[in-house]
Design a protein that fits this description.
Blueprint lengths: L3 E3 L9 E5 L13 E4 L2 E4 L3 E4 L3 E4 L4 E4 L3 E3 L4 E4 L2 E4 L4 E2 L4 E3 L7 E2 L2 E2 L6 E3 L4 E2 L4 E3 L3 E2 L4 E2 L4 E2 L2 E2 L5 E3 L4 E4 L7
Parallel strand pairs: 1-4, 2-5, 3-6, 4-7, 5-8, 6-9, 7-10, 8-11, 9-12, 10-15, 11-16, 12-17, 15-18, 16-19, 17-20, 18-21, 19-22
Antiparallel strand pairs: 13-14, 22-23
């Protein structure tokens, strides 16, 4: 791989774990993590990336993972531009975060669907089976309900996002593990 991984100045054993964890509904003996990095991954601190999760970072792309990051089983992050995942994020299983369409579309020789960065704030909880697409912004202290499709920017903090496509369904939301 041609990629690069950046760690904080102070590192310790077990700070970044890839392919570990136990989610009872998945058979981790048949589930493998995939790490395909041609761009750059920056870890800000402790990160747990569950078994069966897939990380793909394209050339000239940057994935930033905040402190105390946890993504559980069978989730995927595909980064061809830039994805920023904040501190203290909790991401459930089978979540897809993707900043590209993979295939280019043109109209009169003009690119219609450029890759767009994704930003997920600090202390965000993302429920299972959620899809987060290019250009998405989720602000600090928010919750994304299971099965949601986030395809735009939500700049208000402490909100509950739900639906396809996602919309704000509650405000002044807090959460804890």
């Amino acid at each position: 791989m041609l990629g690069r991984v950046e760690l904080p100045e102070k590192i310790y054993p077990g700070m970044v774990k890839v392919g570990f964890g136990d989610v009872g509904i998945f058979d981790k003996r048949k589930s493998r993590a995939i790490w395909e990095v041609c761009g750059e991954v920056r870890f800000k601190g402790k990160a747990d990336i569950g078994h069966g999760s897939k990380i793909c970072v394209g050339e000239n792309a940057a994935l930033t993972i905040g402190k105390n990051f946890n993504i559980t089983a069978e989730s995927s992050i595909v980064c061809f531009k830039a994805i920023n995942l904040g501190n203290d994020c909790l991401i459930a299983w089978n979540v897809m975060i993707i900043d590209t369409d993979f295939h280019r579309m043109y109209c009169s020789n003009e690119l219609m669907n450029p890759d767009k960065p994704i930003s997920i704030g600090d202390r965000v909880w993302i429920g299972m089976n959620t899809k987060i697409l290019k250009g998405a912004l989720i602000s600090n202290d928010s919750v994304v309900a299971a099965g949601a499709l986030v395809n735009r920017q939500f700049d208000r903090k402490n909100v509950l996002l739900a639906g396809v496509p996602a919309k704000v369904v509650k405000e002044s939301v807090t959460w804890e593990v």
